[in-house]
């Protein structure tokens, strides 16, 4: 692909991302899942289980916030498929596809617009966490890197959701399917509790799950501690997710529309 | 006359269903061809193939000489598509919808705004320009959809059941718009379930049924063949036959009526 074609492709992607952002502005309730849900999880787990699990709620909060960031970005990224399924069933994509633009532009645009949701998600979470007593133990640079990593994680894993979104018929089915996939993925990890008391098979998975590894990397970045190991692991997961799900999503998209 | 659209032997099967079963179609430049047929006759499938949205299982088609399979990009730069279901973004306003499409067609920011304003004016949507498309009436939405398909100044326009579900007033508005476009030299492929609509707008009509072309011709020819009235007369006495012939011939002005003679 020539540079000019690539440049046009990016511009089309950005134009379509602008559409996504306009839609968020017009339907702020779309942000509910990335604002209210994280707050509820944060408050509920901290005050219900914090004392029992970590001795006191403050210590638990420091451990929980990085994990909740990962959990919520994953949930936020999973709505991409629902959104895209809606677009396809309403015929909006037919118009885009009958135009001389890159085939992937509508997908890329939708995913870029999702970055806005991710940023909102992280900011809201950190503000509420700070009010509850969470403190970044390192510095602003580490905080920024942690936020960027989290967003990157969402961008990589959202292709799984796009894939499911293109395979299933209705937005409701996509929503249900993603819920079923995400719940075990987020709870079968070290986000809420350490893995040491889990049965062997679960511990084996939870120790290497992408959610656990990124949570540990973020803990290192925000609370201080080992970073290199879990960071490498989570980057490998992200690369793997893109390598597997981006082609699958494109394939399903071409087949569907 | 040069052909804007030429399709030969288009086939598209969905499992057992033959959506297209060997369709030939020719649309001369600057003309309106109406594709008439009931639901499930293959009209929309044909449009989707010609708009590069769907690969046929067999056959080929060209738009202004560009093959829809080999050079879809060239085809896409020539066509405008107004789908069976208005495919504008309901959350976006009229202006935003059109600006988005103009930007995708490489208009500058200012150019896109100007084009959107011009189209909204042309389709009498200026007053509603800032409102979300979901608040539009059926007719307004269809007009916005038409406007959307014209952003790139297409020379070939596909109108897939543009008036299905519209009330007579809104339907007339859409018809007026289509006539204006044709007057400006745009080639139109129109699908419809209504003979009246094809009759009103089309220079020639192709009738689809079960994925095949079952009739073709000018509207008046087809109406004579398909929708013409039949008068059956049986004289009580065979001797009066000649008189009956003469009377009927005078009455319809079409010469000798067809006869079947049966012994009674």
Describe the structure.
Chain A: The chain crosses the membrane at residues 31-54, 60-84, 105-131, 143-168, 180-202, 235-253. Chain A: It holds the Pfam family ABC2_membrane. Chain A: GO terms for molecular function: ABC-type transporter activity. Chain A: One of its GO terms (cellular component) is ATP-binding cassette (ABC) transporter complex. Chain A: Residues 29-256 form the ABC transmembrane type-2 domain. Chain B: It is a peripheral membrane protein. The complex is a heterodimer of chains A (257) and B (264). Chain A is mainly alpha-helical and 257 residues long. Chain A has one domain (3-256). Helices cover 82% and strands 0% of the residues of chain A. Chain A has 10 helices and no strands. In chain A, helix 6 packs antiparallel against helix 9 (210-223) and helix 9 (210-223) packs across helix 10. Chain B has 9 helices and 10 strands. In chain B, strand 4 and strand 5 form a beta hairpin. Chain B has 2 domains: 3-227, Rossmann fold (3-Layer(aba) Sandwich); 229-264, no CATH class. In chain B, helix 3 (94-104) packs across helix 4 and helix 5 packs parallel to helix 6 (168-183). In chain B, the strands form 2 sheets. In chain B, strands 6-7-8-3-9-10 form a 6-stranded mixed sheet, sandwiched between helices. In chain B, strands 2-1-4-5 form a 4-stranded antiparallel sheet. With 264 residues, chain B is of the alpha/beta class. At the A-B interface, helix 1 and helix 4 of A face helix 2, strand 6 and helix 3 of B.
């Amino acid at each position: 692909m020539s540079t000019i074609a690539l440049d046009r492709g990016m511009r089309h992607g950005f134009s379509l991302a602008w559409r996504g952002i306009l839609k968020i502005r017009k339907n702020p309730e779309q942000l509910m899942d990335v604002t209210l849900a994280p707050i509820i999880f944060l408050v509920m787990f901290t005050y219900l289980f914090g004392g029992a699990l970590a001795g006191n709620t403050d210590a638990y909060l420091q451990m929980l916030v990085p994990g909740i960031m990962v959990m919520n970005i994953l949930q936020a990224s999973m709505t991409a498929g629902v959104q895209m399924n809606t677009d396809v069933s309403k015929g909006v994509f037919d118009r885009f596809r009958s135009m001389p633009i890159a085939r992937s532009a509508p997908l890329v645009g939708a995913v870029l617009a999702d970055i806005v949701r991710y940023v909102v998600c992280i900011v809201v979470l950190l503000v509420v966490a700070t009010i509850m007593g969470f403190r970044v133990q390192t510095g602003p640079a580490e905080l920024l890197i942690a936020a960027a990593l989290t967003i990157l994680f969402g961008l990589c894993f959202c292709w799984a959701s796009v894939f499911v979104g293109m395979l299933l018929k209705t937005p409701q089915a996509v929503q249900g399917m993603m819920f079923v996939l995400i719940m075990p993925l987020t709870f079968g990890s070290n986000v809420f509790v350490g893995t040491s008391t889990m049965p062997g098979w679960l511990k084996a998975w939870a120790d290497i799950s992408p959610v656990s590894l990124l949570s540990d990397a973020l803990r290192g970045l925000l609370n201080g501690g080992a970073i290199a190991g879990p960071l490498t692991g989570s980057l490998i997961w992200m690369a793997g997710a893109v390598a597997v799900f981006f082609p699958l999503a494109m394939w399903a998209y071409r087949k569907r529309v | 006359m040069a052909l804007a659209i030429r399709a030969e032997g288009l086939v598209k099967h969905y499992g057992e269903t033959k959506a297209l079963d060997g369709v030939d179609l020719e649309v001369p430049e600057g003309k309106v061809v109406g594709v008439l047929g009931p639901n499930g006759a293959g009209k929309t499938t044909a449009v989707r193939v010609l708009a590069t949205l769907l690969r046929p299982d067999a056959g080929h088609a060209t738009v202004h000489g560009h093959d829809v399979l080999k050079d879809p990009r060239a085809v896409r730069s020539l066509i405008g598509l107004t789908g069976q279901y208005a495919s504008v973004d309901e959350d976006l306003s009229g202006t935003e919808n059109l600006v988005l499409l103009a930007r995708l067609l490489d208009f500058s920011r200012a150019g896109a705004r100007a084009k959107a304003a011009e189209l909204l004016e042309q389709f009498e949507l200026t007053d509603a320009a800032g409102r979300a498309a979901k608040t539009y009436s059926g007719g307004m939405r269809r007009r916005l959809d038409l406007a959307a398909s014209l952003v790139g100044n297409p020379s070939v326009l596909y109108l897939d059941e543009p008036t299905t579900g519209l009330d007579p007033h809104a339907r007339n508005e859409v018809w007026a718009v289509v006539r204006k476009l044709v007057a400006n030299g745009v080639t139109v492929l129109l699908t419809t379930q209504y003979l009246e609509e094809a009759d009103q707008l089309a220079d020639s009509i192709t009738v689809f049924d079960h994925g095949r072309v079952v009739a073709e011709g000018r509207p008046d020819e087809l109406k004579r063949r398909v929708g013409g009235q039949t008068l059956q007369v049986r004289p009580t006495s065979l001797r009066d036959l000649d008189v009956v012939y003469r009377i009927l011939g005078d009455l319809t002005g079409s010469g000798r009526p067809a006869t079947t003679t049966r012994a009674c």
